[in-house]
Amino acid sequence: MRALDQDYPILRVGSLAKSYGDRKVLHDVDFSLHRGEVVAFLGANGSGKSTTLKCVMGLETPDSGSVRLHGRDLQTLSGRSLRIARRPIAMVFQKIHLVPRRTALENVCAGALGRLSGSASVSPLFFGRELQEEAMAALQRVGMADRAHELAGRLSGGQAQRVAVARALCQRAEVLLADEPVSALDPAAAEEVMILLHDLAHEENLAVAAVLHQPDLALRYADRAIGLLNGRIEYSGPVQGLTNGLRERLYSAKAVAA
């Protein structure tokens, strides 16, 4: 793992709490992300991993706590100010959200919609040459330039996930959140996606957080791990600290969160 400026994380989450009715699923979760690192979120189903990333992304509203990007608390913003402030954060999912009847290139161009105006933000027919060149560069970066004009619905799961990552690059993301990005992929495709996430962090200086169900992938491709147990952080540190006993505790406990 490269030396990181521990005093200046790009993203800092403090005392994050979330409940659904009477069921509390996150208990004062604290962590930070730095450029140039991959952080793996580990734990059993229902431990709170995905809920944590969704709260950071704004897909879920936390009951309390702070989410600071470049030192700015996103929880204090709303409307257009919040949308603009969140632009540096992109998310990819287990269920890959591409438009199947659009080409890979058009799907990647869509990553720029948040910073476009006028007709270019309404229809892919108006994507300009400069944007298409940027999208092609993103596809090249993820090894999918040769499939740029293929319909997304014809891509394999691994190919589609790489296109989704390229879309995040076209968004000009600085923080990439990946919610179970390899759970639906075969082992070879999962390795390819994890290698890509690792390289984007270490070579492109992105901050990457990935929810994983496979501790072995975390050991090979992540720099740090955050282990969640029933909505609380049980472990936060280098992946080398994921002992067999800790992994058994994280994955054998009966989780009650979501």
Briefly note the structural class of the backbone: alpha/beta
Q: How many helical elements?
A: 8
Which runs of at least 5 residues are low in confidence (pLDDT < 50)?
Answer: none
Any idea how many domains?
2
What summary fits the major beta sheet? 6 strands, mixed
Rg over CA atoms, rounded to whole Å, is 18 Å
CATH architecture of the largest domain: 3-Layer(aba) Sandwich
Essential attributes:
258 residues; alpha/beta; Rossmann fold; 2 domains; 4-stranded antiparallel beta sheet; 33% helix; 24% strand; globular
Question: Could you explain how this protein is built, in words?
Answer:
The protein is of the alpha/beta class. The chain has 2 domains: 1-88 and 175-258, Rossmann fold (3-Layer(aba) Sandwich), CATH 3.40.50.300; 95-173, no CATH class. Helix content is 33%, strand content 24%. The strands form 2 sheets. Strands 6-7-8-3-9-10 form a 6-stranded mixed beta sheet, with helices on both faces. It has a 4-stranded antiparallel beta sheet with strand order 2-1-4-5, with helices on one face. It is globular.
Brief summary of the model shown:
The chain is α/β, with parallel strands linked by helices and 258 residues long.
Write the layout of secondary structure elements.
Blueprint: E1 11-20, E2 23-33, E3 37-42, H1 49-57, E4 64-69, E5 72-73, H2 79-86, E6 89-93, H3 104-109, H4 129-141, H5 157-170, E7 175-179, H6 187-204, E8 207-211, H7 215-221, E9 224-229, E10 232-238, H8 244-252
Parallel strand pairs: 3-8, 3-9, 6-7, 7-8
Antiparallel strand pairs: 1-2, 1-4, 4-5, 9-10
Helix pairs in contact: 4-5, 5-6
